[in-house]
Write a structure and sequence with these properties.
The termini are close together. The chain is built from 14 helices and 13 strands. The strands form three sheets. A six-stranded mixed β-sheet has the order 3-5-2-6-7-8, with helices on both faces. Helix 1 packs parallel to helix 8 (about 270-280) and helix 4 (about 155-185) packs antiparallel against helix 5 (about 190-205). With about 400 residues, it is of the alpha/beta class. About 40% of the residues are buried. Helix content is about 40%, strand content about 20%.
Amino acid sequence: MRTLTIDTGSPLGVYASDIRGVLPLSDEIDPMGFKCGIVGLPNVGKSTLFNALTQTAAAQAANYPFCTIEPNVGDVAVPDPRLDALAKIAGSKEIIPTRLTFVDIAGLVRGASKGEGLGNQFLANIRECDAIAHVVRCFEDGDITHVEGKIDPLSDIETIETELMLSDLDSLEKRIVPLEKKAKTGDKDAKEAFDLMHRCLLVLREGKPARTAKIAPEEQKAFAALGLLSSKPVLYVCNVEEACADKGNAFSDKVMAHAASEGAVAVVVSAKIESEIAVLPFGEQKDYLDAVGLEEPGLNRVIRAGYALLHLVTYFTVGPKEARAWTIEQGTRAPQAAGVIHTDFEKGFIRSETVAYADYVAFNGEAGAREAGKFRLEGKEYVVQDGDCLHFRFAN
């Protein structure tokens, strides 16, 4: 067995871009963080937030329902100051952050599960996402109409959640009848699938989202395969007026309490402020944030909340060519983390050369960390930690 190490000028630098011509490109895996669907009632600031997040004007932000006719998709770089610090130490010519995908989905209305508004077309778009960013209107503005005629964030949340649950109920009730018949014949797989669906139906019929059903770890894959809309983890984004962007208001306080009660995550942003920050040159953004009393853009808070929601962490590859961030789930072992760069890295994994971020910085790079005894060789059972700087060795 031959060991192949791709040389990027540093033992801590292995990148997909360096293996082109060595390994087939078709096997590369896109190191995307996650795909998050932005949902909410019409006129709550979804498209304004989307424009700010992706720094583009691709999505219309108009004061009328259904201005988003097709879902807009945008990728954003994940801001991570650790990546800049690593690149500075290593003298990296290029910095490549990990990226997230946001999908701006048209405003849902009461009755969407039955085809009202633009209905099922957009419910299907949600099904393709890993998580839901539910934008909730938490501001008063007489010039911007509310589809329900009142500002009541908890009622808005209930409307959206109800439509997702009704869609799931309809989907499961259609599928479970033939499955039950098959399960009664003694088919083991059908029996397990029926039991899973039945548990989901029970919570849905109680008016609770599918994500509240008791699912064993070994059932998670089958549960995800059901494609239930209300099974998606939810991040509530409280869209407040500019003056309340730092601490929120009475409306957002209610949403925060609601999120805490169901184990969800919530953040406060002002979509209007975010849209103004997005069009400023990078050098002027800090001055603007200082002027409005904010330490960072809302994008950073949304991303951190999304990472926490989906239990994601970041590891780095660092060298003279580039410093790069990669996203994995918490608990990922070294071979699977290597597979994010390329499937052959996982298949032929031998070991990972590892330096923790704090040690890399404290000892001014890989050489210093090695001298200080902070350079480690980790095997197949090693669980990659957030901030690890890794170099993978594998058999070709």
